[in-house]
Amino acid sequence: MPAVASQTRLLSGWGRTTRSRAAVVHPRAADEVSAALAAAGPRGVLARGLGRAYGDAAQNAGGRVLVMTGLQGVRTFDAGSGEVTVEAGTSLEALARVTMSRGWFPAVVPGTRFVTVGGAIAADIHGKNHHRDGGFGRHVRALTLLAPGGECHRLLPGSDAFAATVGGMGLTGVIVDATLQLVRLPSGLLREQVTRAEQLGELLERMAADDDDHRYSVAWVDAAAGGLGRGLLLRGDHAAAGEAATLRPARLRAPRRAPGRLLGQPTVRIFNALWLRRSRPGTHVRLTPLAAFFWPLDGVRGWNRLYGERGLIQYQCVVPDGAEPVLRRILATGRRTGIVSPLVVLKRLGDGEGPLAFAMRGWTLALDFRAAAPGLDRLLDGFDDWVADAGGRVYLAKDARLRPAALRAMYPRLDEWRATRERLDPLGAMRSDLQRRLELA
Amino acid sequence: MTDGLARPQTVVAFGGNSDIARALILRLVANGTRHVALAVRDPQRAPALPGAGARVDVLAFDADAADTHSAVVAEAAKRLGDLDLAVVAFGLLGDQERAERDPAAAAALARTNVVGGISLLVALARHMRAQGHGAIVVLSSVAAERPRRSNFAYGATKAGLDAFAQGLGDALAPEGVHVLVVRPGFVRTKMTAGLEPAPLATDADAVARVIEGGLRRRAATVWAPPALRWVFVAVRHLPRPLFRRLGL
Ligand SMILES: Cc1cc2nc3c(=O)[nH]c(=O)nc-3n(C[C@H](O)[C@H](O)[C@H](O)COP(=O)(O)OP(=O)(O)OC[C@H]3O[C@@H](n4cnc5c(N)ncnc54)[C@H](O)[C@@H]3O)c2cc1C
Ligand SMILES: NC(=O)c1ccc[n+]([C@@H]2O[C@H](COP(=O)([O-])OP(=O)(O)OC[C@H]3O[C@@H](n4cnc5c(N)ncnc54)[C@H](OP(=O)(O)O)[C@@H]3O)[C@@H](O)[C@H]2O)c1
């Protein structure tokens, strides 16, 4: 087995709220992953992708962390069927670069293209098309998982191990490659339909009524403005052939250290006003490049630093259909307490699949907060109670502050997941800070 | 694990009977800390912590027995799992008059406050380095900032502890471990019972609140009340003749 060189590093998530130290290894091939797994010490081991999880999911304090970005590249790609086999450390940006010119696109993409395939599977990420196409995991045809004991599993949809690994937050083993089914991409443009809504009720009504007519759908809600729920509804469908598919490079680097104050209420208002100016009242249709539609924030490199030294907390929850009052209550409470989130994203989700799935048919809401905001802890604990009571959940890939008891209330199939994990990792070698904090396993 | 809002899940307090430590623990437990260990001289006399849903363990701990400190830290970790937060709260005020005249009394004060403090800090640092995260709150005092006629025996011990803790904080920052040095002024606790309160006197809960804020900001040093920081900037720079005449 190859030797394992590690380097001690402080790691944090995208939100930069918690830091912990780990021995970081950069494997370049599956056999190096195996070697690093075998050498795991008492505080265990964990895979990490591009570190885009907001909280502590991709950290392992005092243990070993395998940064997977060295396992890179497309192994096989059938441009006829759109089936592709990629190394787990490949980013969706790199994957899309290879497949777009041949007319294929990843079936699910998140709000940033800088995530790895392994991270996308481990969090079973959702895109703006979850209401129609499900999560990333639904488009995985097979994956290779290295278990900490040294076994190499080829997992297929339908098996317990597959279901526990998709959305399993890296705690079942290390994914080294995956075979994905891509979707046809007729052009590099989307037909985007932008609708301005003055009321949350109007947004919800529209989304419930005709989201299913569009492949992609998402709403940006202005939490600071007068009328609660003023917002923009953005719908997209792939436009017919014609224009060349291009990815626009990231531009506008955010300042390295910005005062946390920058995101106080007045700037929140300005931000929201600017955002709204992009659209006149009513519904408009335009052609939008893929990157601008899917990844507007990628245009501002390092925007997470805008939240200051203490960092950023994103609260993303889902509540089932019928629990719309919870959405209203969350938005109203955030505003009343003055802890306003500048970006509120609202979208519909379809059914979730695995035992640790976040998704459920209903509504998901994502709010960003300065971690330094006084009273934020109590506010979000309160949101947890309402969400859990409504049968909803908090998204682990974004979480940095949920409690074990709330987790148990929100994820009723936790024990089923634990049982499968125990089979794959009987010694409990796969560990993360998230797992310790939430007593996941 | 401590969460993204700086809320520790486990806390161990050395000098667990300290009024300031208790006030801090009550706040932390109200805010979600689920498991507490109180390391105290006499486990039979462990203080009751009004419920609030946390599990409380009591451990035997003597600051003066430096050779046991590693074992006590290991025992705390056995009970709590990860040590998210350690509070170094024990301390003796001592008797200035005696400490000035009786070598044994001066040495006893130094043994508890400095030798015990430093030894425990090293044991904690070693544990938290391996753990890859954690925070240590060290109760120093404004008395550490300039030795004063009225309490320099105590002040000198706190100055030693304070200096060590600050350096340790710098050493541990790149390891993901946060050290917070706390410099309270006069706090109405059992340590100061019967003494004439000094100006800007405060209580244990106010100190606890300042500590919570410092943990959240990852501050290296906090003063309680915070205004004392500026008072002691002035005191530190008073010319000696004037300082003597004031007889602080
Ligand atoms: C701007 C922004 C927008 C986002 N938008 C969305 C969105 O729209 N929808 C959504 O669902 N998410 C979204 N996310 C979250 C992001 O998609 C997930 O956190 C994703 O898991 C990040 O992938 P990563 O490669 O960076 O993984 P990391 O953050 O490094 O790791 C995340 C988890 O995956 C595990 N993992 C990583 N690689 C492997 C592997 N090879 N084998 C096993 N486990 C592994 C880690 O252990 C960890 O538990 C967004 C994040 C950002 C920063
Ligand atoms: N109160 C103030 O005005 C003030 C001001 C500045 C700094 N401080 C510092 O703050 C810290 C906490 O003080 P406090 O006000 O909370 O006082 P406190 O209630 O008297 O607490 C001090 C604790 O230290 C413990 N202790 C003393 N010697 C010990 C030893 N050898 N081994 C183990 N424990 C020992 C005592 O334990 P027993 O219960 O067993 O005696 C006592 O519970 C101290 O370090 C103090 O110096 C206090």
Topology:
The complex is a heterodimer of chains A (441) and B (248).
Chain A: E1 6-12, E2 19-25, H1 30-38, E3 45-48, E4 64-67, E5 74-78, E6 83-87, H2 92-100, E7 104-105, H3 117-122, H4 130-133, E8 140-146, E9 152-155, H5 160-165, E10 174-181, E11 183-184, E12 189-197, H6 200-210, E13 216-221, E14 231-238, H7 265-277, E15 283-289, H8 290-294, E16 312-320, H9 324-336, E17 344-349, E18 362-370, H10 376-389, E19 393-394, H11 404-410, H12 414-424, H13 433-438
Parallel strand pairs in A: 2-4, 3-4
Antiparallel strand pairs in A: 1-2, 5-6, 6-10, 7-11, 8-9, 8-10, 12-14, 12-15, 13-14, 13-17, 16-18, 16-19, 17-18
Helix pairs in contact in A: 9-10
Chain B: E1 10-14, H1 19-30, E2 35-40, E3 55-60, H2 69-80, E4 85-88, H3 96-101, H4 103-131, E5 134-139, H5 152-172, E6 177-184, E7 187-188, E8 202-203, H6 204-217, E9 221-224, H7 228-237, H8 240-246
Parallel strand pairs in B: 1-2, 1-4, 2-3, 4-5, 5-6, 6-9, 7-8
Protein architecture, described:
The complex is a heterodimer of chains A (441) and B (248). Chain A has 441 residues and is α+β, with helices and mostly antiparallel strands. Chain A is 26% helix and 25% strand. Chain A has 13 helices and 19 strands. Chain A has helices at residues 30-38, 92-100, 117-122, 130-133, 160-165, 200-210, 265-277, 290-294, 324-336, 376-389, 404-410, 414-424, 433-438; strands spanning 6-12, 19-25, 45-48, 64-67, 74-78, 83-87, 104-105, 140-146, 152-155, 174-181, 183-184, 189-197, 216-221, 231-238, 283-289, 312-320, 344-349, 362-370, 393-394. An 8-stranded antiparallel beta sheet of chain A has the order 15-12-14-13-17-18-16-19. Chain A has a 5-stranded antiparallel beta sheet with strand order 5-6-10-8-9. In chain A, helix 9 packs antiparallel against helix 10. Chain A is globular, with a radius of gyration of 21 Å. The two termini of chain A are 29 Å apart. With 248 residues, chain B is α/β, with parallel strands linked by helices. Helices cover 45% and strands 17% of the residues of chain B. Chain B has 8 helices and 9 strands. In chain B, the strands form 2 sheets. Chain B has a 7-stranded parallel beta sheet, sandwiched between helices. In chain B, strands 7-8 form a two-stranded parallel ribbon. In chain B, helix 1 (19-30) crosses helix 6 and helix 2 packs across helix 4 (103-131). Chain B is globular. The N and C termini of chain B lie far apart (44 Å). Classes of the chains: A alpha+beta (441), B alpha/beta (248). The A-B interface holds A 10, 15, 17-22, 43, 55-56, 60-63, 309-311, 313, 371-372, 376-377, 380-381, 400-401, 403-404, 433, 436-437 and B 1-5, 7, 9, 31-32, 34, 81-82, 129-133, 174-176, 216-218. The complex binds flavin-adenine dinucleotide (FAD) and NADP nicotinamide-adenine-dinucleotide phosphate. Flavin-adenine dinucleotide binds at residues 14, 46-53, 57-58, 68, 88, 110-112, 115-116, 118-120, 122-123, 125-126, 169-170, 174-175, 297, 397, 432 of chain A.
